[in-house]
Every structure is written in C-alpha cells, then in structure tokens.
Amino acid sequence: MAVLRRAVQTTVAASTGFYLCLYGLDQPVAALYSLFAAIALGPLSPFAGTGRQRAAVVLRALPFGLVLVAIGTALAASTWAAVAGMLVLGFLLGFAPVGGPRSAGVAPGLQLFYILACFPPYAPQTLPARLAGAALGALLLAAADAFLFPEAPAPSYRARLADALETAAEAVTSHVPGERLREQGARLRLSKVPQSDRPTGPGREDRALGQAGSATRRLLEGLTYLPPPADRAAPDSSACAALLARIAELCASAATALRSGGKAPSAAPLEAAAEHIQAERIRLTAPPRRPDIAVLRQQSAALDLATAAWVTVIALGIAERRAPRPPAAGDVFWYATLSAPELWARRIEANLTRRSVWFQNAVRVALGLAVARLVAGTLDLAHGFWVLLAVLTLGRTTVGATWGAVRQAVIGNLAGAVAAGALLLTLGQRSEVYAALLVPAMLLAFLLGPLLGIAYAQGLFTCLVALVFAQVSPVNWQLSAVRLLDVVTGSVIGLLCGLLAWPAGGHREIRRTMADLLRECGALLPPTADLLTDPAPPRSSLPTLPLLHRLRLAEAAYAQYRNEPRADQEHAPADWHAVLIVAHQVLMGTHRLQRFDLRMCECGLAEPVLVDLDDWLTGIDRQLERIAASVTARPG
Q1: Using H for helix, E for strand and C for coil, what is the string for 366-410?
Q2: Strands (DSSP E) along 43-133, which ranges?
Q3: Do the beta carbons of residue 57 and residue 172 sit within 8 Å?
Q4: Interatomic CA distance for residues 459 and 419, integer angstroms
Q5: pLDDT reported for residue 241
Q6: Per the omega criterion (within 30 degrees of 0), is the bond before 535 cis?
Q7: What's the distance, CA 74 to chain centroid?
Q8: Dihedral, CA atoms, 269, 270, 276, 279, nearest 10 degrees?
Q9: Burial profile 560-576: b = 16 or more Cβ within 10 angstroms, e = fewer
Q10: N or C: which end of the chain has fewer CB within 10 A?
Q11: How far apart are CA 386 and CA 367, in angstroms?
Q12: Rounded to the nearest 5°, which phi and psi values hold at 356?
C-alpha cells in the first residue's frame, strides 16, 4: 500500500508539472526540469515518514536544489569545470549522512539537480526556465505528499520513550514479565524506528533523545533481572526500597512530561537516595564487620538501575533545552553546553577519517561521478547525464553488491531498450500518443520498480525516458540504444570505483572499527582501577570521549554492515552487536563510578584484595587487546 501511495503521488506531481509546462506554457526546458525534480526528490530520495514529514523535507531541500541547478548551469561552460564541481559537490552530498537520516535520504536526489544542469549545451539564458521548472516539480511533489492519500503518523520516538518509561515504572513496583520489558526495549532500537524519527542527527536534541533511548533500554534490561517486590527482602531493604521508589517516580514523571510536552523531572531525589545507599554501604562494610556480598550485590543492582534512570532524565532535560549542569571533561553529557554549529563541526571532524564508512562512501561516490562526467564530456556522449545517473543509482558499498545491481540493470535496460525502440519505430512522431501513454507508464515504473527489483525498474524507466523525450523533441529508435550505452558506461565506471575504493565496504571496516573500540574500552580499565583502589585518586574525570568517538564510528560501520549482503555465510558471523553492548557497559560503568558509587578502599577492604582487584582489571585490559588483535588478524 505504501509503494502504491508513493507511486501515485510521484506520478501526479511529475506528470502535472510536465504537461503544464510543455503543453500549457510551451516551455520544454521547464517541463523536463519539473519532471526530473519530482523524480529526484521522490523515487531517488528514499527518505521515510508520513506525507507531511516528506513534504517538509522536500521544501527544505528545494533551495539547495535550486542553487545546485544554478551552479551546474554555470559550470557547463567547460568539461573540466563541470568535473571539478561534480567532485566537490559529489563528496559533500555523499557525506550528507553525517547530518542524520533526512539529509541522507534526500542527498541522492539533490545530486540529480546538479547532474542534469552541468551537461551541454551551455545555455545560461535557460536558467530562469530551469529554476522555475525545478521549483514547480518540487512544490507539486510536496503538495502531493501532504494532501494526496495522507497516511496516519507512526508513534514518534518520544511516544516510544514514554511507553518504555511507563513500563519501567510499573516493573519497579509490581511484577512485569521479562518478555514485555524486552519488547519495549526493542521498540527503541533505531532499526525498529521509522527513518524519519531516528534521533541520529548531530544537534543537541537528537543526541539527547538518542542517549535517553539507550539508557532506557539499559534500564529495561536491568529490570528483567529485578526480583519481584515480595522477594526483595534484605538487611538493607529500606535503602534499596527508597532508591527503587525514586526510580519509579522519576520514570513515571518523565513519561508524563514526554506526553504533555512539559519539563523533565528533577533528578535530585534520585541522587539523594543514591547517596543514602552509599552511606549505608560504608556502614555495612566498616571494620570489624565483614561485607555481606548478597547485600552489596543488591545495592549494586539498584545503583545500576539508578544510573540508567538518572542518565535518561538528564538527557531529556537537555533535549527540551533546559540549562543543564556544566559537564566535566570526558562527561557523557559533553554536548549539552555546545552550540549547534559546534556540534555539527564535531560530527563532521569526527568522520573526516578513512575509518568512517560515511567518509568512504562519500569518496567513492564523488570519484565515480567525477570520472563519469569526464568520460561523458570527453567522448561527447549524447544524453551523457544517464552515465552519471547509472553511477549514482547502481553504486553500492561493496563491489560484489555493485556487480549484482549492474548485472540486473543491464538486463533490464536491454529489455527496455528493445521495447522502447519498437515503440518509437511503430509510432514515429505522434506526440499525442506518447502524451497519453506517459501517465500509465510512469505509474507502472514507480510501482513495479520498487516491488520487482532493479531489472524491472531500469527497463521501465528506459521506456519512460523514451516517452518523455519523444514529446520534447523529434527522436528515433536510436534513443533507446543511446541510453543502453550510457547505462553500461556508467555501470563500468561504478564497478571500477567500487573495486578500487574500499571494495569490501562495511564487511572489512567493521573489523577495524570494532578492534579500535575494544582497545579504547581496555584503555579505560587502568584509570578505573585507580579510581576504585587509590585512597586519593585525581579529581579529573575518566577519559571517555575517545571511547565515545570510536563507538560512533563502530555504530555507523555496524549499520552499514547489516545492510550489506553477507559474504561470510560459510562461517559463523561474529556477534558485533555484543561488542557494542560491551562498549556501552564500559562507558556507563565508568560514569556510574564517578557519580553514584564509592571507592573500594572506603569499604575497609584489605590491601591484598585491592591489589588483586587492580590486577584483575589490568588482566581484562590485556584480554581486550588480544581480542582486538585477533579481530583484525582474521581475513575480511
């Protein structure tokens, strides 16, 4: 149903603008740009969301698209100028995923605005018609998305958070099945959230909501191991009960604030209850008492839940732009006091490295498009923009996946070229027949292409292109042969770029990023041991920012890896998600030690015990280093 809705919306927008400009205003240039603008921001821009959300994205992208049309029109004067512009703009738009799912989804479509305008003939006098046509096509698409067959909105990420926090509050005070808790946690996984609602942007609100979701998932997972209220009796039950009560109140208040749009609750009562447990732990472990391990474990479990709830509520306060406490160096809320430009700069700088899959993809796309523009301009290929369109739409993150897409595309284009050539030979220059066939052909292409795969999409699009250009200018059967040649040329260029630039994609990069992540986790253990065992540790916070940086790179590599065809089916695939969980546990564990826990030396433990603890943590550091080395040593 969703594919049919999108096909109808795109068909209505593209055909309306094309017919209006060509037959109503006698502006063939504006007609072409109106049609391709609707296609660029429709089928070529796979961003999800409700109709109104997509319309908003299209309207925000339109000014950038018009600027790209103007730049392409100016640089079409020279092949080398157009190639240089393609290299720069191709990288910038290919790097757009650093800005979140919306910018990532619309980036391929924006590429087409420049690609279409940067080809000969150099005709700056047509710029007003080009801009008017592109604007009309985008506006018609936005209107169709917003008002034609509107769909009901899916639950927002804030609503999912509210549901999860209400379940957490209920689980603290009464028994909730573990399956229900895990189900609520799974709903917060980004892979389960619609692309348009994923809080993955570089801004403060997205960072805070993402952090709140991660902490809430940790809270729900911890609650699955919490005994029912009747089984929680212990010598220190009053302290733990008070802390659990504060957790339940905080979760319920946070859920109410998320639903009503009010202020996030204060975490002060939770902090006071945590400090009370700390004092209780010192009393229970002070000499000559012997520490009750069962009691300490119960307190630790309660403090772990408190940490997750505390992080959630502080992050929600940051998301609603309340003035947060100034973060310490290395604090997990390091982003709270930075401005939007600073946060964007941090995100861009962190990914300007060859270890970032976003950087790799941007380089691959920019090189492929620049080479394709150079080949099309040097060989003076007719309709050379199809060469670049093939590179843009058929390129994948691995050379194997690219070859699979190219093989299907060539087969589909060959069949489409034969059908289009036969149609042009049969009908000749009867433009009224082409006009009548355009709408059903467009609807079939936009409907069957996504449903049946690349071969059908390319074949049907070849027929669609023939119907469009047959109305704009006199054509013959050779038009379909030209498109086939251009698609094959672009496919070869895309394959070569994929072969030379990171051919294994996320499959190879995930090993390096996960190994680096494990090393950063190990690097945090020695200072953690010092914090636990040193009677007078330094007051500076533990260095968590390097771990956060590696964690973001690893998460991006893992997301790409999950979307790539599996090349290691004969071997048991590594559980990379478990590595991410370990990193999150290390990160939150170090933060909890700084906020809610006491040093082991304050418990009155003997010196040999402290030495053994220090040696144990150091041993884990060495083990993580060995695992990281083995990960990178295995074949990709």
Answers
A1: HHHHHHHHHHHHHCCCCCCHHHHHHHHHHCCCCHHHHHHHHHHHH
A2: none
A3: no
A4: 9
A5: 84
A6: no
A7: 33
A8: -130
A9: bbeebeebeeeeeeeeb
A10: N
A11: 16
A12: -90, 125
* Distance, CA of 43 to CA of 14 (rounded, Å): 11
SS (H, E, C) 552-617: HHHHHHHHHHHCCCCCCCCCCCCCHHHHHHHHHHHHHHHHHHHHCCCCHHHHCCCHHHHHHHHHHH
Distance, CA of 62 to CA of 146 (rounded, Å): 16
Its sign, for the CA torsion 306, 307, 312, 318, is positive
Helices marked H in 119-156 — which ranges? 127-147
* Residue 299 CA: distances (Å) to CA of 168, 276, 294: 18, 11, 9
Identity (one letter) of the amino acid at 204?
A: R
* Residue with more model confidence, 128 or 119: 128
Lowest mean pLDDT across 247-256, 347-356, 617-626:
617-626
Copy the structure tokens of residue 132: 């008017």
pLDDT on residue 605? 47
Q: What value does the mean pLDDT take over residues 327-338?
A: 73
Do residues 319 and 203 touch, judged by C-beta distance below 8 A? no
Q: Which two tokens stand for residue 480?
A: 């379909």
Distance, in Å, from the CA atom of 620 to the CA atom of 616, rounded to the nearest integer, reads: 6
Q: Residue written as tokens 């000499």? A: 287
HSE-up (13 A, CA, CB side) for residue 284: 22
| pTM of the shown model | 0.86
Alpha-carbon distance of 109 to 559, in angstroms, equals 22
What single-letter DSSP state applies at residue 356? -
- By 3-state DSSP, what share of the chain in percent is helix, strand and coil, each rounded to 5? 75, 0, 25
The rounded distance, in Å, linking the Cα atoms of 364 and 46 is 20
Give the mean pLDDT of the chain: 84
Type of residue at 187: R
pLDDT recorded at residue 606:
44
Q: What angle do CA 586, 588, 593 make, to 5 degrees?
A: 95
| Inter-helix orientation angle 28-40/51-75, to 10° | 130
> What kind and span of H or E run contains 332?
none
DSSP 233: -
| Closest C-alpha among 283, 268, 295, 493 to residue 379 | 493
The two tokens of residue 15 are: 């055909």
Which one-letter amino acid corresponds to residue 352? L
Token pair of 66, please?
């018009």
Select from 125, 29, 14, 115 the least CA-distant residue to 69. 115
Residues 6+ apart with CB under 8 A from 141: 9, 10, 13, 14, 37, 38, 41, 42, 55, 58
Bond before 341 cis per omega within 30 degrees? no
CA distance 365 to 91: 7
Start-to-end CA span in the chain (Å): 40
Distance between CA atoms of 3 and 456, rounded to whole angstroms? 15
In this predicted structure, the answer to whether residue 502 has a pLDDT above a threshold of 70 is yes
> Encoding tokens for residue 497?
């770029």
The DSSP output letter for 126 is: G
Spatial neighbors of 251 by CB under 8 A, at least 6 apart, are 165, 166, 168, 169, 172, 219, 309, 312
- Pair 462, 483: CB distance under 8 Å: yes
Report d(CA 481, CA 591) in Å as an integer: 63
Alpha carbon distance 38, 151 (integer Å) = 20
